[in-house]
Amino acid sequence: MRIDVIDFYFFSGTGNTLLVVREMSKVFIEKGLKVNLYRLEKTNPSDINLDYTIGIAFPVAVQGTFPFIWRFIKSLPETDKNTPLFIVDTLASFSGGIKGNIKRIISKKGYKPIGIKEITMPSNLLPKKLNIEKNNRKTERGLRKARRYAVDLLEEKTRWYSNPLSILLSIISQSEKPWRLFRQLYRFTIDEEKCIKCGLCVKLCPMENISMLSYPVFDDKCTFCMRCISFCPTEAIYIPNRRLERYHAVKAGNY
Ligand SMILES: Cc1cc2nc3c(=O)[nH]c(=O)nc-3n(C[C@H](O)[C@H](O)[C@H](O)COP(=O)(O)O)c2cc1C
Ligand code: SF4
Ligand code: SF4
């Protein structure tokens, strides 16, 4: 199999996945490939070009991933071209519900699953206290792994192991229940004294869950990607009675 062009679709809440995608893209480009980067949240799956190798990158959430990423994967068009497809996901420690189900979905649609890699990066899930040195070390290790994975993909050394338990575990993040629970437990709230009404949170939200009235107002569609709370320039978004530091791996301008 020869890879010439990679269409890389990615979503990143707070920048970890974006760093990994950039690192892998650098390797691909160094090796003479063409890489096209696309925002997954802005892509209609039916517009995907089936003549190129496809990469999909996203963060792990609730042992699987966000429902809108599942919907994207499930809406990929069928192909009779045996289109090669690889996955890279980033996570804080463990994911049980990614590998098996995605392999099953894309194989049924006619894609050739060429590799999957889960890359540990710092946790962005409501950290109470950030340990910057530890996070930097984790990021360095993660990016080394990303480079290695990119090389392995090109040298056809990747595998896609999965087990049936993974399909079972994937059901949790695909259902609405955990997300509803999160919305009840963690009510994002605006500190009107801190909010400068810049509108960044509205612009960044992939779910169109925030509207600007006299201050930003949250609807009930939050998927807890952490973008708004992490990138608000004045830390005006908070969760009542919860100590919280904001993690982000890149600056807001990258989005
Ligand atoms: C709502 C939510 C749920 C998460 N669930 C998991 C999980 O089940 N397992 C895990 O290892 N990491 C979990 N994480 C951590 C993220 O997967 C990890 O920090 C990821 O690298 C973030 O990527 P991003 O910066 O591209 O958004 C979760 C994060 C969030 C926000
Ligand atoms: S990003 Fe922060 S400061 Fe800007 S509008 Fe949203 S809450 Fe207010
Ligand atoms: S409201 Fe904030 S955390 Fe929720 S989906 Fe939108 S940007 Fe992400």
Please characterize this protein's 3D structure.
- This protein is of the alpha/beta class.
- The protein has 2 domains: 5-174, Rossmann fold, CATH 3.40.50.360; 177-254, Alpha-Beta Plaits, CATH 3.30.70.
- The protein has helices spanning 16-30, 67-74, 99-108, 132-154, 164-174, 177-185, 200-204, 227-231; strands spanning 5-10, 34-39, 53-59, 84-91, 112-120, 189-190, 210-212, 216-218, 237-238.
- Strands 2-1-3-4-5 form a 5-stranded parallel β-sheet, with helices on both faces. It has a two-stranded antiparallel sheet with strand order 6-9. Strands 7-8 form a two-stranded antiparallel ribbon.
- It is globular.
- The protein starts with a strand and ends in a 17-residue tail after the last strand.
- The mean pLDDT is 95.
- The structure holds flavin mononucleotide and iron/sulfur cluster (2 copies).
- Residues 12-17, 59-63, 90-95, 121, 123-125, 224, 226, 249 line the site of flavin mononucleotide (FMN).
- One iron/sulfur cluster (SF4) is lined by residues 190, 195-201, 216, 232-234, 236-237.
